[in-house]
């Protein structure tokens, strides 16, 4: 399998697997024996991949999914046991805090990645897996997937994912889910805004995914990157400043090769050249 140049020299364990089909990169969470519980090594591997493709225009979309019929069941309990030993040696809780903050950094990195991120959700979508789903641009779920924030029932808190859950579904729904620690299916996830489409079975799930990829390929690569950044900035920047910046970006887009090609393709009633982008 051929990978983009940015991915060729990465070195990580088998906690994730990569597949690339032209401009679409799939990251498989690959710990099926633990329902793809997120270990420290998995977190580091995901960070490596997203760092490597940050400036790689040849990767237009990233598909996140899990091996073995599950997306991700949350953090790895075995890592917690190891951290307990480190905390005892250190005489403080810093090992716990450092591990948790690294996970938050990974979630934030996925959130702001310039590529379009698609989460394909099956089986367990719990805790950290739920947080990862909440930072995807497009989320597709099987209707029998099991979502939830079980942390409070385990005596801990959804520390790093809480802000991203609130951004995704709003404070009212996030309060209810986090404080009750309840589990729910894909249809409820659709109703409250965690996911965008729900499939009845695996075959339909793949059809929806393929349709989503086709739609991504029809969008201009650079315009998509700028648009995603603009949407994120709309939550943090003053409106006047944001609109001024957006006007400049719009002018650049219209005058760019993408803008010219898109306009000409529309006039000539043909597909723009990026549809066949490799």
TrEMBL record:
InterPro entries under this entry? Answer: ClpP/crotonase-like_dom_sf (IPR029045), Enoyl-CoA_hydra/iso (IPR001753), Enoyl-CoA_hydra_C (IPR014748), Enoyl-CoA_Hydratase/Isomerase (IPR051683)
Is Repeat one of the keywords UniProt gives this record?
Answer: no
> Which Enzyme Commission number(s) are listed?
4.2.1.-
What's in the keyword line of the UniProt record? Lyase
Q: Which SUPFAM superfamilies match?
A: ClpP/crotonase
Instruction: Please name the Gene3D superfamilies in this protein's record.
Output: 2-enoyl-CoA Hydratase, Chain A, domain 1 (3.90.226.10), Lyase 2-enoyl-coa Hydratase, Chain A, domain 2 (1.10.12.10)
CDD domains found in the cross-reference section: crotonase-like
**One GO biological process from the UniProt record?**
isoprenoid catabolic process
Q: Which GO terms describe its molecular function?
A: lyase activity
Q: Kind of enzyme, top EC level?
A: lyase
Q: Which domain of life is it from?
A: Bacteria
- Keyword presence, Transmembrane: no
What family is this? Belongs to the enoyl-CoA hydratase/isomerase family.
PANTHER family tied to this protein: ENOYL-COA HYDRATASE, POLYKETIDE BIOSYNTHESIS ENOYL-COA HYDRATASE PKSH-RELATED
- Which protein is depicted? Carnitinyl-CoA dehydratase
Give me the gene this protein comes from: caiD
């Amino acid at each position: 399998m051929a990978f983009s140049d940015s991915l060729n020299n990465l070195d990580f364990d088998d906690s994730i697997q990569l597949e690339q089909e032209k401009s679409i990169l799939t990251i498989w969470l690959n710990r099926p024996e633990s329902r793809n519980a997120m270990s420290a090594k998995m977190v580091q591997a995901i960070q490596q991949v997203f760092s490597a493709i940050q400036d790689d225009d040849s990767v237009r979309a990233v598909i996140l999914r899990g091996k073995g019929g599950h997306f991700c069941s949350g953090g790895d309990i075995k890592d917690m046991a190891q951290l307990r030993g480190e905390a005892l040696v250190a005489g403080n809780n810093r090992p716990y805090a450092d591990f948790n903050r690294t996970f938050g950094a990974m979630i934030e990195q996925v959130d702001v990645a310039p590529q379009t991120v698609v989460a394909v959700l099956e089986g367990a979508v719990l805790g950290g897996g739920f947080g990862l789903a909440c930072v995807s641009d497009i989320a597709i779920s099987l209707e029998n997937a099991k979502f939830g924030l079980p942390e409070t029932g385990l005596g801990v808190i959804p520390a790093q994912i809480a802000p991203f859950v609130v951004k995704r579904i709003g404070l009212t729904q996030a309060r209810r889910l986090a404080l009750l620690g309840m589990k729910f299916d894909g249809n409820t996830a659709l109703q409250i805004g965690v996911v965008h489409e729900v499939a009845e079975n695996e075959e339909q799930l793949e059809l929806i995914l393929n349709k989503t990829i086709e739609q991504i390929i029809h969008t201009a690569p650079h315009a998509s990157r700028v648009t995603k950044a603009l949407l994120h900035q709309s939550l943090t920047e003053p409106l006047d400043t944001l609109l001024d910046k957006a006007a400049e970006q719009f002018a650049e887009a219209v005058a760019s090769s993408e803008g010219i090609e898109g306009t000409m393709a529309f006039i000539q009633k043909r597909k723009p050249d990026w549809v066949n982008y490799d």
